[in-house]
Amino acid sequence: MGVSKRAPATDNVSDEGSKKNMKDDAVHLRRRIGLLPSISFIIGTVVGSGIFVAPKGVLMNSGSVGLSLLVWALCGVLSTFGALCYAELGTSFTKSGGHYTYLLETLGPLPAFLRLWTEFIFIRPAVASYVSLAFGRYVVEPFFLPCVAPTALVKIVSMLGVTFVVAVNCWSVSMAARTQVSLTFIKMFALILIIIPGIMALANGKTENFQNAFDSDSLSLTKLPLAFYSGLYAYGGWFYLNFITEEVINPNRTLPLAIIFSMVTVTVCYVLVNVAYYTMMTADELLMSDAVAVTFAGRALQGVAPAIPILVALSCLGALNGGFFGSPRMLFVGAREGHFPAIFSMIHIRRKTPLPAVLFLYPLVIIMLARGEIFQLINFASFSRWLFIALATLGMIIHRYRFPEHPRPFKVPIAVPVVFTIVCFFIVGLSLYSDPWNTGGSCALTISGIPVYYLTVKKSYIPERWKKAFYYFSQQLQILLEVAQQEVQTY
């Protein structure tokens, strides 16, 4: 009797152990991102080239020192409002995918597909190209001063930076997370290195550049949205943690904590960095500088000035790494939902990384880098990005009223999403008037996804011969890349 009673217990233990081992060996994305990597992921993605490049765009379009500082502060508040909305969305819908998932859950498949379409046709390649070019410029230019660095060399170094980031994200999730933590500490050191001498000079009475700070002859209400676009570009990245919800440990606690801490830290740092810039440079001098941080270092940090371009380059690399870590997860989820080819929802059988989704971005970024001048791509990419962010928060408001009983572990006051959504739609609408060429092109590319959706997703009009050829090609690619479908549901 004693043996017969104990035997089932032993069997149960062995069954549980075998199930655990099977789950450990199964192909799926692991929850490996804790609170510190989450904070590092947000800060490391937000703080990239923007704070070292965007001050010129903010000042140019705002028209005065005082108003530009106000724009920086308001952009921080607006980004924090958006981040809090996404904290609610991320704890309400536990899938990865960020914007795509929230649009799918609240407004339906067409807006979700259009977000996926625009992200990989031009938003992510444009942003990654811009950041990688900034990386290449800061690496190369110190060796050619006072001459202009060769454009071809800048592009080659930029491509090497992109290649390094892609390799890291293909190799290991843990390595990509550790790289992000390390680069985040370096870039925060760079910001502190700028803030301290600027604030010390201000405390010692160097305030002449702040006299009549709001006086301006060039203030134009039609240009203000472009000032906000430059500022919001510098704050961009607060939503990337939501792309990897399925890989975050205890997301109901980690998401809100990481978002709140990161956005408050970044907002305070950004405003102080701009105050430091204006302490050492006049508005005209800042507008004439193509590398604001380097110009600042030449005046305030003569002893360590050569280190600033290196720190800025590493900062850009961190933002690039964060983008390549987060964005492929949106494509991964979109393919899993049937909105993109199934190959992009597959994971490397040993590395447990979404290899096809990461690799898909690589040639798109390289092509855009090779094409040449992309300085206007901030406005070009920002229109579509902020339109869909506004739609996601609008969807959140609608979902609240349609499904009041839906569990929401973290809930923000309704005023936050309402204010954020209205301001986003206002900026997006006014930008069509301010910069019709770039924003109109972005709008046209976004709309171009509608016929693609109806032809390939809603009702498949693809010829049977093409389908067979595509299936064969996907099968061979799956074998070559050693990838397989996810075997464990992670949401």
Q: Structural class of the secondary structure composition?
A: mainly alpha
Approximately what portion of the residues adopt beta-strand conformation? under 5%
Q: What is the end-to-end distance? A: 43 Å
Task: Summarize the main sheet.
Answer: 2 strands, antiparallel
Tally of DSSP helical segments: 19
**Number of individual domains:** 1
Q: How is the quaternary structure best described?
A: single chain
CATH class: Mainly Alpha
Low confidence ranges? 1-10
GO molecular function, one term: L-amino acid transmembrane transporter activity
Protein name: Cystine/glutamate transporter-like
Subcellular location: Membrane
Region (Disordered): 1-23
Keywords:
491 residues, Amino acid/polyamine transporter I, two-stranded antiparallel sheet, 1% strand, globular, disordered N terminus
Strand and helix map with partners:
Elements: H1 2-25, H2 35-46, H3 50-62, H4 65-92, H5 99-106, H6 109-140, H7 151-171, H8 173-203, H9 224-235, H10 251-280, H11 283-288, H12 292-300, H13 307-336, E1 346-348, H14 355-371, H15 377-402, H16 415-434, H17 436-447, H18 449-458, H19 464-481, E2 483-485
Helix pairs in contact: 2-8, 2-10, 2-13, 3-4, 3-9, 4-9, 4-10, 4-16, 5-6, 5-15, 6-7, 6-13, 6-14, 6-15, 7-8, 7-13, 7-14, 8-10, 8-13, 9-16, 13-14, 15-16, 15-17, 16-17
